[in-house]
Amino acid sequence: MTILDELDKRILQVLQVDASLSNHELAQRVHASPPTCLRRVSRLRKEGVINKQVAILSPDKVGAGLTAIVEITLDHQATEYQIHFENLVANEAAVQQCYRVSPGPDFVLVIQVADMTAYHALAHRLFATQANVRNVRSFFSITRSKFETQIVIA
């Protein structure tokens, strides 16, 4: 685990809110010099603390307005079967998140697609054609009342 000092934490908090800031703007907000800030951000990326910087889109504005939260139970739960399933969903762009969970189902997926027709096509590809998928339970979002990407830094 990387040890974070107070400046690292301030940098990470600000970047979680707005990663599009220039290095100079970031340095001003965290009360550090631009060279120091640049070195710190570079180190945090190199160490994997900053995994990636992205733009978060509004799904309904880009034609991906249906969110499905899907529970998957496999027939066989041995590690190789779980890895096979993870590799299968990793190649599907509409699967935004995949979690191995316990207890209950083996996996929980968060899927973002255009509509129910697109979901059915994806479900057929990923679930119905897989011999090891025993049970699929899908929930469809009516309203998204909260969506955050920030992690509380202790």
From TrEMBL:
It comes from the Bacteria. Keywords: DNA-binding, Transcription, Transcription regulation. The keyword Ribosomal protein does not apply. Residues 4-67 form the HTH asnC-type domain. The keyword Lipid biosynthesis does not apply. InterPro entries: ArsR-like_HTH, AsnC-type_HTH_dom, Dimeric_a/b-barrel, Tscrpt_reg_AsnC-like, Tscrpt_reg_AsnC/Lrp_C, WH-like_DNA-bd_sf, WH_DNA-bd_sf. PANTHER family: LEUCINE-RESPONSIVE REGULATORY PROTEIN, TRANSCRIPTIONAL REGULATOR AZLB. This is Lrp/AsnC family transcriptional regulator. It comes from Undibacterium seohonense. The lineage of its organism: Bacteria, Pseudomonadati, Pseudomonadota, Betaproteobacteria, Burkholderiales.
